[in-house]
């Protein structure tokens, strides 16, 4: 006949509680990765809206107005990328992974700053270039 050992139950319950906490932290890390990826997609969408607006309303009068609206959307992409990077890095520094690989912070920074730099270059090109030549306006 089996003997009931209450100490064994407490150790088992404690271990299960610690495992559930570890799994919750891992799920949070994966959710943060998905959220960061979502903000990067949103930044790319803002860039696409800016380029699309400029292409669609290229012959807009006055001509600088279409560029200004496109610049606003592309600048919004820079804000999205940088703010997502800052929030993600702060959150990842607070968490520790157990069973999943946590993303490396330099990689997150590289992605975000690359998108922001590309958007900045696109804004410069939008205002400087006109059909492949230097623009006067």
How would you briefly describe this protein structure?
With 137 residues, the chain is mostly helical. It has helices spanning 6-56, 63-94, 105-128, and strands at residues 129-130, 133-134.
Describe this entry's structure for a reader.
- Helices cover 78% and strands 3% of the residues.
- The chain has 137 residues and is mostly helical.
- It has one domain.
- Strands 1-2 form a two-stranded antiparallel ribbon.
- Helix 2 runs antiparallel to helix 3.
> Strands across the major sheet, in which order?
1-2
Point out poorly predicted stretches. Answer: none
Multimeric state: single chain
- Termini separation: 92 Å
Order of helices and strands: HHHEE
The total tally of domains equals 1
Rg to the nearest angstrom? Answer: 24 Å
**Structural class by secondary-structure content:** mainly alpha
The coarse overall form would be: rod-shaped
Q: How many strands?
A: 2
Keywords summarizing the entry:
single chain, 137 residues, mainly alpha, two-stranded antiparallel sheet, 3 helices, 78% helix, rod-shaped
SSE map:
Layout: H1 6-56, H2 63-94, H3 105-128, E1 129-130, E2 133-134
Antiparallel strand pairs: 1-2
Helix pairs in contact: 1-2, 1-3, 2-3
């Amino acid at each position: 006949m089996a003997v009931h050992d209450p100490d064994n139950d407490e150790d088992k319950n404690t271990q299960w509680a610690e495992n559930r906490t570890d799994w919750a932290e891992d799920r949070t890390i994966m959710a943060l990765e998905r959220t960061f990826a979502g903000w990067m997609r949103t930044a790319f969408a803002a860039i696409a809206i800016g380029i699309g607006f400029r292409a669609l309303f290229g012959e807009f009068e006055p001509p600088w107005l279409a560029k200004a609206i496109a610049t606003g959307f592309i600048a919004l992409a820079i804000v999205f990328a940088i703010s997502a990077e800052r929030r993600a890095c702060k959150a990842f520094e607070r968490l520790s992974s157990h069973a999943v690989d946590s993303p490396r912070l330099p990689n997150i920074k590289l992605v975000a700053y690359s998108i922001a730099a590309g958007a900045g270059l696109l804004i410069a090109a939008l205002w400087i270039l006109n059909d492949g030549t230097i623009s006067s306006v």
